[in-house]
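Lab manual, section 2.4: Encoding a predicted structure.

Procedure: take the sequence of the chain (410 residues), apply the prediction step described in section 2.3, and record the output as structure tokens. A sample record is shown.
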Amino acid sequence: MNASYIKDPATQTATARALEGVKVVEMGQLIAGPFCGKTLGEFGADVVKIEAPGAGDPLRNWRLIKEGTSVWWQVQSRNKRSVALDLRQKEAQDVARRLIAEADVLVENFRPGTLEGWGMSPQELHAINPGLVILRISGYGQTGPYRDLPGFGVIGEAMGGLRHLTAEPGRVPVRVGVSIGDTLAALHGVIGVMMALYHRKVQGGAGQVIDVALHEAVFNVMESLLPEYSAFGAVREAAGSALPGIAPSNAYACQDGWVLVAGNGDSIFKRLMTAIGRQDLAEAPDLADNAGRVKRVVEIDAAIGDWAKVRSVQAVMDELGRARVPAGKVYTAKDIAEDPHYRARDMILNQRTRDGFEVEVPGIVPKLSLTPGTVRSSAPHVGDDTDAVLAEVGLTAEQIAQLRARGIIQ
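Recorded output:
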């Protein structure tokens, strides 16, 4: 078991951390910016999260609540330190500038212009910290005609082209089921941060701004969507569980559930057809490559569907496993929690919260052999670390007390 699997952060074995010494100030809330901060923190960065006094980040109250706090929060904010600071007040903005002056990275996901309104434009921040890497995540980016429009991840998924494809043909577009637009933006942000830090350290470059738009992060993973329109005028349409232009790859009904089968490799297709007793299709010359299979995909899908529907999910998985055909059942949360492979790869961690209860949470991705990600501390309460963090940037106990008395900090 590697060091990322912990029951109590205090008992964790010390290990090298890839981002040891990197200081991150996280401003913003909910998903995209905080997911970026979460990822950086898991690999050793010191992440100071600035949130509003009182309720703090709204994510604390999203979805299912235990002991007054969302269990989602326990994942999104582990390894972070919370500073409760009312950024609407000038004195709070001055405190934020002191924190940012000593940081390597600033992560923010406010609407464009918010930082500028607080006197914290990139130009002003780089004047006090020339090496600062500023990650800005927003709906439409910092430039362009839509920059001032409000935008959430779901809107980015729509504009990026994803929502048009997530449906059965002719039916309403559905969401993926999680906030994939926000998470894609966050991951692009992490990539940008690492590139900028590399440029600064290895190439001697200055700090810079990383501009991530939600819809662009989605659009970046849309594969051949645009080139197909450009070259052929083809508008890719929703295809349900199938993968248009690649065959066979679909979901097939069994007696007790669904199985996804990806038999689209040439040799895999032959093994699949042999396994389901369709040697005629396995040996058909025109089905030897993908182009031919696409022309007869309805027939192929029907053959697989007829074979699967009289078998259980497990029987289909077993038979296709023996034939070395990629197949997988549709996992629920219960399936994930009970799966030995997840456990073996430390993808389910038992995390003790600051409220005293334990909850299983997702493990850390990616897995590094020498500097693996770790969970060093559980998610904080609002303002848990205000005094300690402000003292680190030179505020005295008296100054901190005065700020608290005026409601600027918590």
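Check your result against the sample. The first strand starts at residue 23 and ends at 26.
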